[in-house]
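Q: Joint fold for the lines below.
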Amino acid sequence: MSSATDLKSHPRLAIRELERGPRTAESVDAFLAEHEFPIVEGSTVTFVWRGDAHAVNLRHWVFGMPSTQPFRRLSRTDLWYLILEMPESSRVEYKIEIVRGPLHQLVEDPLNERRARDPFGANSVFHTTGYRVPDWTREDPEARPGRLEELEVESATLERAMPVTLYYPARFRKARTYPLLVVHDGPDYLEYSGLKTVLDNLIHRLEIPGLIAALVHSDHRLVEYANHAPHARFVAEELVPRLEKDLPLAGNPAGRCLMGASFGAVAAFSTAVRYPNFFGRLLLQSGSFAFSDTGFHERGPAFDPVVEFMNTWRDDPVPVANRVYVSCGTYESLIYENRSLIPLLQETGMQVKYAEARDGHNWENWRDRLREGLSWLYPGPLWMVYE
Amino acid sequence: MTVATLPAAVTFASPSAPDRPVFLLGPQRIKTTLGRVLKDAGIDGDIASVTAGWQEREDEVEELQAQLRGRGVSLRLHSRGDEVFREDRDLAKVHHERQVVLQTMQRTYDVRLRHTMAAIAELERRPGPAEILAADREDAMQALRDLDARHLERVQAIHEEWAPRLRLGERPAVQRHRKELEKTLAGVSALAISGGHVAVLLNRLRLFDVLGSLPAGVPVVGWSGGAIVLTERVVFYHDSPPQGPGNAEVFEIGLGVARNVVALPHATRRLSLDDTERVSRFARRFAPAASVVLDDGGVLSIDGDRWTADAAIRRLEADGTVKGMSR
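A: Joint structure:
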């Protein structure tokens, strides 16, 4: 991604018409009415903000480029703009920073209705040519809905009752056996990645089999998801045995999958390492798999146990599951850690599938990879079933 | 046992009238046409229903019974199969061993199919003198047809080779159910076969020789996967699966009640019908059989050599288009 606000470059962009015109309030009004923003023209994206300010900046989380990109004011107008070059099939979340004297205000782009939500609020979103919101992420009226059920699992190891949300597939039958998907940060996957809709759709399309998902919650995730022995014990020795006792689950390694994103991926992987081959499938998204060749790192104290765990595993990689799906956005700071993990996973003999996308560390990136990941870990009866 | 006998060349070229009226229907969940088809055909009396493709949900027939106006007599082939395999462990073992052989063969066929399809696609894209490329392209297509035909020949050979070990005609557990079914089928006015898991459905229909026990002339209605098993060859397809290249694959020999048809239920959902290259490739691959789109509620009636298709029935054409059909 590079900035190209220079007037001489990209002479055919839509913004150039406005630059060449009379630059009146009316012409700006007309320009704003004529376009959707940001304007995506091939690989070029033009951001626009209108108003009085001392400065306007684009704020984003694309790793490897300055996270603040200044807008330029179109002289004799109150219109600010920024032109960026982005590769095709990119999806980027951003905010606009308005600077007025000492005040710096971060706002969602008022000219762009597209939003992505996360636990911290919402961001504006743009994407370049080639990216489309996958149709299987949208509610499909033909798809039979699964159902959610709240559960509390008393945990001796964590010394509290752990809330768990269970997902049952549509047409759940006790006479069948189902794989179990244990999802870290379950409520966030439901809320921000549309996990229930995704599961409903993929099961309806026969791309994955009917499965039961246990969506686990943690109010202390930075501790409990960072290679935390009590958390791993809770999952492997309390939660899964209870569910396998009460529900028609396959009850074997191939029928158990751990899943998570960011620190949740660390929780999934470290639990699998502590209980090797108890879980046959892993789905790890943008894992915070920080490591250090020197023993020193700059990611903050929350990462200390992660770095220690990853350093130890990387020194002596051992197989922990049969199949591992790993994904990461190329605009994430964690891309190096995730890329470098793949050959280590592969050399243990585990089956590994790795996917990258031009996206960041966010819930919609994780949503968009679920079809590929889940259908690889648990292929559905797509070819055989015609109802 | 009524397994359609394939000619050695497996071309399906010669039209051959079935000995009973056949109705191939599209999926019935969104748009139901089963009741209307039975009514229009003047079919009264009990109707034998097969829902074995639904597997453990076989008995959940309330909606189907409503469409059959309460006249459905469930043959319970899935649960009968489970009973047989529980009772005759040797049969279960032999059956499983044969399935493993067939599955292994299917995977090796897939390897060859992948490369053959890739060659066809590459030749179609390759620039060059038309007079040279046309012959190469046709040869590549013929190689694909030969591969499909050879695969079905081998599948047939496996069925024949394993028949003496399966000894279905001699096993008491199987015979008891076959006699019950024969008695039931003697009194019905039609056989209705739902979709679902096609391999399971086909296996159960063969295990109990349902078509062989159905009196001549009694109409058969199959929808979705039930339509697929009634044709001469079972073809699976999906142009954009989440894994793999999406090559349609020949899977098995069908029951052969509907001839010269490749049934494509859910085609609009599974196939890229606006992709003229893929449509053309599909149509030419299985020609002269008609590759027929069975969309929701579509009805294709086959009576002798007369086909009647409603507006929802379309056909993949060699020129890459998808056109309505009637014949």
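Q: Anything notable?
A: The longest strand of chain A covers residues 91-100. Chain A touches chain B at residues 142, 171, 173, 175-176, 202, 207, 371-372, 375-376, 379, 381-387 (CB under 8 Å).
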